[in-house]
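no rush on this but wanted to send it before i forget. what follows is a protein written twice so to speak, once as letters and once as structure tokens for the fold. mainly i need to know what kind of three dimensional shape the backbone takes. thanks a lot i owe you, the record is right below.
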Amino acid sequence: MSVDAETTTGNADPTASPLRYFGSEVRLERERLGMTRAELGKIACCSYSLVAKIEVGDRVPTLDFARACDAVFPYANGRFERFWPLALRYAFPPWFRPYAELEWKATVVRMFHPHLFPGLVQTPDYARAVLRSGRHTNLEALVTARMERQRILTRKDEPVRLWLVLREEVLTNTVGGSAVMRQQLARLREVAETPQHRVQILRGKADLYGATSPWGVLSFNEGADVVHADGFPRGYVLADASDVTAAQDAYDLIKATAQPPDESAELIDSIVKDHYS
């Protein structure tokens, strides 16, 4: 396909959102070089169709894609990577964006989940199975955005420290089939064995305050902690000092009741053997 033919789908308003703006800048730089989408896709290790969707703001660019653009476009000077976090945040629903921005800035994230693995440790297939149940029309964009959120755990510049407590039923609640669960539990084991992170399993039917719905506490280098509580149809952020104190106390109790972190890997292995072998 010629470069001119490819421009016909690039008429989306670039001011409509950061995703649209990111995509329009990719298209302008690509066309300036006389490069086809297939050629850019080959450099960025993705398909022609994905490049096309990114250019019109229909798909979320990965950080690797942004870095590839900075590498191939003259005078980019790292602007695609610098703009990428804003584009990523606007891939999320409006109500989730404030939390995504706080999560990106956090130094410690403490989470409790009683029913599902949280997005920060989900595999792509597990995330896809969970999100598919909501019948989203932009399923793949949401999966990409969820996976890119996880970069806070491994980034070179001050990665987030994660403390995760899960009810045991999360590990035995089959989502997407046995193969998906084996992969997901391997991912959890990897997190549990990473020195900077902690994973604990709350066994049995312990009836504890704060142990019936998902929530977490975020800490920062500067500023007070905040609480994020999941709910239907949306989650919300709490910054009131009394709410934060209550959440911290509840989390301390949940941690004290859960199995020690050093026992998590062995318990995960046992669940894989008993439920998914």
Notes: The mean pLDDT is 91. The longest helix spans residues 241-257.
